[in-house]
Amino acid sequence: MTADPEQVRVSHRERLRAARALRESAREGRLSDVTFLHRLRAVADARRRRDLDAAVRDLPPAGWWARAELAVQGWWGRTFGPRQAAQLDLRLPPAPGRYLIGRDYGCDLRLTHDSVSRRHAMLTSVGGQWMVVDLNSTNGTRVNGWRLQVQTPLRPGDVLDLGLQRLRVIA
């Protein structure tokens, strides 16, 4: 009589492997901090393999072959043009202040497109004029097609590109 593989007790080594996979996915920006902590707790509490598998099932595969495959997929997407995200309208806030834009849950304006960095750009009000500055994002920030090097003013009608996410500034 053989045991059901899903009912087999999880070893310490399997838990460590799952925790490493979670850490790597969080480091690459595939998991938010909250999701990472939630799943890490699930890995620590897992008693059976099915519980452990549920915590890491949707993560990309580990190992050199899987990483090479993901690298080729990334090259293919960059070479043949990744899809542009849908254009969104950006209404500038009525109150002056600082507004963080990015993929992170702590951002004031959260965008979910993969090409947007966790902390991508900052909107600030300077003397009644809204300015945008790139926060060293991976895919850059552009205003009307020009890549930002310094703080740049925003006006109604401008097109703001954060990676492949396009925002049209409206009054």
Automatic annotation (TrEMBL):
<dbReference type="InterPro" id="IPR008984">
    <property type="entry name" value="SMAD_FHA_dom_sf"/>
</dbReference>
<dbReference type="InterPro" id="IPR012551">
    <property type="entry name" value="DUF1707_SHOCT-like"/>
</dbReference>
<dbReference type="Pfam" id="PF00498">
    <property type="entry name" value="FHA"/>
</dbReference>
<dbReference type="Pfam" id="PF08044">
    <property type="entry name" value="DUF1707"/>
</dbReference>
<protein>
    <recommendedName>
        <fullName>FHA domain-containing protein</fullName>
    </recommendedName>
</protein>
<dbReference type="InterPro" id="IPR050923">
    <property type="entry name" value="Cell_Proc_Reg/RNA_Proc"/>
</dbReference>
<dbReference type="InterPro" id="IPR000253">
    <property type="entry name" value="FHA_dom"/>
</dbReference>
<keyword id="KW-0597">Phosphoprotein</keyword>
<feature type="domain" description="FHA">
    <location>
        <begin position="99"/>
        <end position="148"/>
    </location>
</feature>
